[in-house]
């Protein structure tokens, strides 16, 4: 059910990273669940995110995006969205991609647990733009339409063309009926970069990698705080500093009533450690 705002957040080193800050985020989110839908997005697969939900204070989301955008499921029902699968993966053959790229000596396949039919992942330390371009051009010459996502100066994910965390976030926003102004995205690394290429309100946490911290623009807030504290700091920025049209809460909860406008209290962050 559509609510006031859609929050799409990376998991590792964005929400996860500091237990105390995560607990504060989870408490704040539960107080505002009537006004927010939460999407957890990750390079990890959904089964791995499910483990983190069981083992940490991550709040239960409405949707999970896994495998850098190659999986989208509702939570807790675990229903996939057929339109996403059909649009993205119709002509993709991951095994063919692996076979073709076996001639690139510097590509070290990641473990099977990080691979799927639609996510082909390698270690490629300190790759330059020329090396990445040569891989992309090689695949194009083989009529393979692929998206290359390079992050952490080591990890190379090869996905079906047009598939990434940004397109997954845009798809879900459209699927759920949100305007870009009502979507907030959060991240820390280059595999989150695509989420900041839409007209969403962006939060870059303080511990983010240089490629993300280098982003500039009116829709980007760079928090000085790390991990979940940075997410809370960014939420405080966007929910209270950017002009918004009033929106009505569509459902009931212990803290809100039907027809009551969304209200977000100022966020008091824990003191700096």
CATH architectural category of the largest domain: 3-Layer(aba) Sandwich
Shape: globular
Distance between the termini: 38 Å
- Proportion of residues in extended strands: 15-25%
Q: Please give the order of strands in the largest beta sheet.
A: 4-3-2-1-9-10-11
The main sheet comes to: 7 strands, mixed
CATH superfamily of the largest domain: HAD superfamily/HAD-like
| CATH fold descriptor of the largest domain | Rossmann fold
List the uncertain runs.
Answer: 243-259
- How are helices and strands ordered from N to C? EHEHEEHHEEHEEHEEHEH
Report the top-level CATH class of the largest domain.
Alpha Beta
In helices, the fraction of residues equals 25-40%
Q: Care to describe what's here?
A:
This protein is α/β, with parallel strands linked by helices and 273 residues long. It is built from 8 helices and 11 strands. The radius of gyration is 19 Å and the shape is globular. The N and C termini lie far apart (38 Å).
Keywords for this entry:
273 residues; alpha/beta; Hypothetical Protein Ta0175, Chain: A, domain 2; 2 domains; 7-stranded mixed beta sheet; 8 helices; 11 strands; 30% helix; globular
Quick gist of this model?
Helix content is 30%, strand content 18%. By secondary structure, it is of the alpha/beta class.
Topology:
Blueprint: E1 5-10, H1 19-31, E2 36-41, H2 46-55, E3 63-66, E4 71-74, H3 82-89, H4 94-101, E5 108-109, E6 120-123, H5 129-141, E7 146-151, E8 155-160, H6 165-176, E9 183-187, E10 201-204, H7 210-213, E11 220-222, H8 227-241
């Amino acid at each position: 059910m559509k609510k006031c705002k859609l929050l799409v957040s990376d998991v590792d080193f964005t929400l996860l990273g500091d237990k105390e800050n995560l607990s504060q985020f989870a408490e704040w989110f539960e107080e505002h669940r009537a006004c927010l839908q939460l999407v957890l997005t990750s390079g990890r697969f959904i089964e791995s995110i499910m483990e983190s939900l069981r083992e940490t204070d991550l709040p239960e989301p409405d949707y999970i995006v896994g495998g850098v955008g190659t999986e989208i499921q509702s939570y807790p029902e675990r229903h996939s969205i057929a339109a996403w699968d059909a649009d993205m993966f119709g002509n993709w053959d991951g095994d063919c991609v692996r076979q073709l790229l076996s001639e690139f000596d510097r590509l070290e396949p990641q473990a099977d647990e990080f691979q799927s039919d639609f996510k082909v992942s390698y270690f490629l330390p300190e790759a330059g733009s020329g090396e990445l371009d040569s891989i992309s051009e090689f695949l194009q010459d083989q009529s393979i339409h692929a998206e290359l996502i390079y992050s952490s100066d080591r990890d190379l994910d090869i996905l079906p063309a047009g598939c990434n965390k940004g397109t997954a976030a845009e798809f879900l926003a459209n699927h759920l009926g949100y305007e870009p102004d009502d979507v907030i995205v959060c991240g820390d690394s280059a595999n989150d970069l695509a989420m900041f290429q839409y007209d969403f309100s962006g939060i870059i946490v303080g511990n983010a990698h240089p490629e993300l911290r280098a982003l500039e623009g009116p829709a980007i807030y760079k928090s000085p705080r790390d991990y979940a504290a940075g997410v809370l700091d960014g939420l405080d920025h966007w929910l209270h500093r950017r002009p918004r049209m009033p929106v009505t809460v569509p459902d009931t909860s212990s803290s809100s009533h039907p027809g009551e406008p969304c209200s977000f209290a100022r966020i008091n962050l824990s003191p700096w450690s």
